[in-house]
Protein: RGS13 protein
Organism: Alca torda
Amino acid sequence: ISLEEVLQWSQSFEKLITSTYGPMIYKTYLKTEDSDENIEFWLACEAYKKITSQRKRNSVARKLFTSYIQPQAPNEININSPARKAIISNIQEPTQSCFDEAQRIIYMHMERDSYPRFLESKFYQKLKHSLQTNGN
């Protein structure tokens, strides 16, 4: 992990979440806030969109639904009722985009809420500091 990459994370949430180590580091931070289900869901949706086999898509869609979407799911994410209802009605024949709205909502939650706290956190500051003083 390079200092350059870590410094870029403070430029935008997009840079953090699309970098090589950003999602993993951010997830570690979110665990301290008990909200790592957000990044897990977001990353799972990114992987889901790449699935080409309908059979595999059906299987993964059900896993996403039971893990993150259904009420009282073990890693239930905070999305609005219309988004949840849309997924519930589409889960029998899941499309490549059936989780897009939920993923967008979760992205906004992370960008607005936990990302600013991440940048201010001792966790991020220590990482930055250790790379600045020790090189890589």
Helices lie at 3-8, 13-18, 22-32, 36-48, 54-69, 81-90, 100-120, 122-134. The chain has a mean pLDDT of 94.
